[in-house]
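thought: fold this chain, then report.
action: predict
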Amino acid sequence: MKMNTTNNKIHAELFCTDIQNKNTERIFEKLFETSIEELLSDYDEYDEIDEEPIEIEDKGVMIGFLPETSKEPAHIEYIDLDIKSNPGNMEYLSVTLPVSFDVQIETALSSYKNLRIFYSLYDTEKPEVIVFHHENLRYELLVTEKLSISRIRVCRSENESTVNMRTYYPFGEECEILP
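observation:
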């Protein structure tokens, strides 16, 4: 599977290939300015990779890896982008999103497939998570009370109707796990 290197954006091929593939390594390094090998230097073997994602220091980027198994090589499961503290992280995306939603969310995201809006249990008028699909990728947007995007999770498009059940881990030195 050949990767598109012309636009230096997160794209679907990054999620379904062996992280030891030379082309994947090159694309990853060009995109995030670090190597996968350096990021995973605490692991002797790729079958030891933890469930917790690995943060790229000072970039507001977390990478969730799936460990190597007897059936599958280690690969990237998801990429989390901190938009609240690092609004420039929107540049990693191949989609165009508003920083905040001052119009109807459905209107702003009408060009994307499988749009789902999940509202707060306590305030059914307040969206908390917005999910949509585009070019074989699933985008999960965490939205603040002021309807601005605080975090984006990008993963391979697999499930069209529910929020990815993986835990959101906080960026930086915080130690609590996000809901």
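thought: worth noting. Strands lie at 54-56, 61-66, 75-82, 113-119, 127-134, 137-143, 149-156.
final: tokens above.
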